[in-house]
Fold:
Amino acid sequence: MTAGERLRDVGEFGFLSRMLPTLPQGTEVALGPGDDAAVVDLGRTRVVACTDVLVEGSHFRRDWSGGREVGRKAVAVNLADIAAMGARTVALLAGVAAPGDLDASWLDALAQGMVEESAGVGASVVGGDLVAGDQVAVTVTAIGVLDGPLVTRAGARPGDTVAVCGRLGFAAAGLAVLQRGFRSPRALVDAHRCPHPPYAAGPAAAALGARAMIDVSDGLLADLGHVSDQSGVGVRVDPDRVPVSDQLEQMARGLGVDVRTWVFGGGEDHALVACFPPEQTMPENWTAIGTVVEGTGVDVAGWDSIPEGLTASAGFDHFAR
Amino acid sequence: MTAGERLRDVGEFGFLSRMLPTLPQGTEVALGPGDDAAVVDLGRTRVVACTDVLVEGSHFRRDWSGGREVGRKAVAVNLADIAAMGARTVALLAGVAAPGDLDASWLDALAQGMVEESAGVGASVVGGDLVAGDQVAVTVTAIGVLDGPLVTRAGARPGDTVAVCGRLGFAAAGLAVLQRGFRSPRALVDAHRCPHPPYAAGPAAAALGARAMIDVSDGLLADLGHVSDQSGVGVRVDPDRVPVSDQLEQMARGLGVDVRTWVFGGGEDHALVACFPPEQTMPENWTAIGTVVEGTGVDVAGWDSIPEGLTASAGFDHFAR
Structure:
């Protein structure tokens, strides 16, 4: 790293792509940093773990989201990561920084939201820490267990079918609505406040033989790019097969937005994307949207150019100017 | 919680003591919140986990501590919690919030410090998250495994010997030195920058039959208070047996401080305190400092009153005014 270089010049992805490979990994580590979650092999149990940080201002605004919604979201983004490995979450821990003048009932609601979202998958909030900070920051760690096969981002093979389960673009649309000063439609705004990832679909896809999987946290194209990179393959997307809801289309038209920026670039719905062997019948609730091919990178069939606004949102970097 | 009540009015301990008991715990949770770490029983493996948050301004200052020292400390406080359960840490995850204008080399040093401290116990940093925030906040989660008996805060019995392993008061003295504008003596200042808890002593004490254990993070008397509360016993401390280094005595005299405020009230050295059955010979590096008795609370033999300054520091509350 060049002396005096600022974090925002290097960027989140730039810093991590340089730093993560330098972390030494012990013999008990089956999968280190760089996937949706890490895997530790404790001999008779494979434990899966991940951490996500939500910071006020970057990830939520307290005038847009209540404590309960932030609590649900902080847990949901982690549950989705564990599900994307084919695992189920058992326990969560929360590290919370908050200003002293925060209304204590907001924190009560935060805890309530965490418990609700965890209970939905049978997981428990088992511990945490609460400290003073200038802004609200919520760090949740999820600990899961692998009952079946592990699915990483690295197993896709040419010929595999690329499929998606869950919503795309709803959270991005909801954020766009809020940013324009509206509080409705409720379905979109709520999607920004708290995602509803298809948790159970992760282990189910693993059991059915999914060869690679990821949760859509950076945006569909950006996350397919991660699968492409880590599997050493190309991904060809058929945009006509990517589900776009009528509600999103209408809202995009109303706001003068290309709906593709939300659907292909919006990341916070935490849908699951998996690559299935070609002979695999699509499981229920999964939609085939493309094919794994020889080569590198992500190609969208029929797109001459990347829609305006999509480049910036695909692979959102918190430190980008 | 009364409507409109602020976090600083309720306090960290007040909020947690009210909130934690409301968290539902699933059948796989062997020990929920309220101890040094939680324990999840995965059938053939007992996983131990804890989270600690360090926030710039509250827990460290960047003009007093380098990134490497903050990284070591953020890991150390968690390793000590895992050790205090009798477990060994296998993996750690780090959630980091940082301002965009932070020098990227500071974050490199942070990662380096985390790796160094983890490597000392054979653990790996397996994952994390990096996001933008107004101040540096580092949340580390440690995941450990129990190879032997679990030791909680709740097992002490009247007649047990109370013993300590590790340093007391050094970090508090180092902080006092820094707060007065000095940068030496180095041993004290370094103790504030990064503790050196006796990690291996935790599982060793568990194997020898320790009935209760805690790491000293709030201060010796405050943490003995936690053992007293959770075991339903009283603790009688013989202050003449509590180790006080000559260096601390001299520094306290020089600064006009009662050294007992550091030794009995200072929390950040993360010594281990355990209660051993009366017939147990003290293991190497452990010093007997008192006895578990019938009753409640912590009593220091021969003290007519609590030394000035100790009340405030015992059980440090981040939100107290």
Chain B touches chain A through 83 residues (CB under 8 Å). Confidence is low (pLDDT under 50) at residues 312-316 of chain B.
